[in-house]
């Protein structure tokens, strides 16, 4: 079994210090072409950032795969956070203690799965489902829509 995990996080209405929300979509568990998805609010306030939310999103997805006792042959991770992807694969140092804890937890999940894994950065417009899920979690928290992100 091959799994594809798409993840995204946000911290709104301010970063840092806003509400950290996450979303993920896991392909390869359910029916062909369908994803198992999840989203939620992690925490709000001091210490919350986009980067924390991104790591939480990936960690929640990997925790679900482990909780379901799945034994994939491969896991391919896709995210639009260059920082998280590059810290995960070891191309960037992880100097922030909190982020390092989240990274290490994700690596522990991957080790416990006992599979081959790889991670790829993708542009935001290729990560629409996970982005929408994270935004939906925030909307559920505050009860109003976020403005659409402007492409840079």
Automatic annotation (TrEMBL):
Pfam families: RVT_3 (PF13456). GO terms for molecular function: nucleic acid binding; RNA-DNA hybrid ribonuclease activity. InterPro entries: RNaseH-like_sf, RNaseH_domain, RNaseH_sf. Transmembrane segments: none annotated. Residues 1-139 form the RNase H type-1 domain. This is RNase H type-1 domain-containing protein. The lineage of its organism: Bacteria, Pseudomonadati, Planctomycetota, Planctomycetia, Gemmatales.
């Amino acid at each position: 079994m091959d799994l594809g995990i798409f993840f995204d996080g946000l911290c709104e209405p301010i970063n840092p210090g806003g509400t950290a929300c996450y979303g993920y979509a896991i392909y390869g568990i359910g029916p062909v072409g369908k994803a198992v998805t999840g989203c939620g609010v992690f925490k709000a306030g001091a210490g919350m950032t986009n980067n924390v939310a991104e790591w939480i999103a990936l960690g929640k997805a990997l925790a679900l795969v482990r909780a379901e006792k799945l034994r994939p042959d491969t896991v391919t991770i896709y995210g639009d956070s260059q920082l998280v992807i590059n810290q995960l694969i070891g191309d960037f140092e992880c100097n922030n203690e909190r982020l390092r804890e989240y990274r290490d937890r994700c690596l522990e999940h991957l080790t416990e799965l006992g599979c081959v894994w790889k991670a790829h950065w993708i542009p935001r417009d290729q990560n629409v489902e996970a982005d929408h899920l994270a935004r939906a979690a925030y909307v559920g928290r505050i009860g109003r829509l976020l403005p659409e992100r402007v492409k840079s």
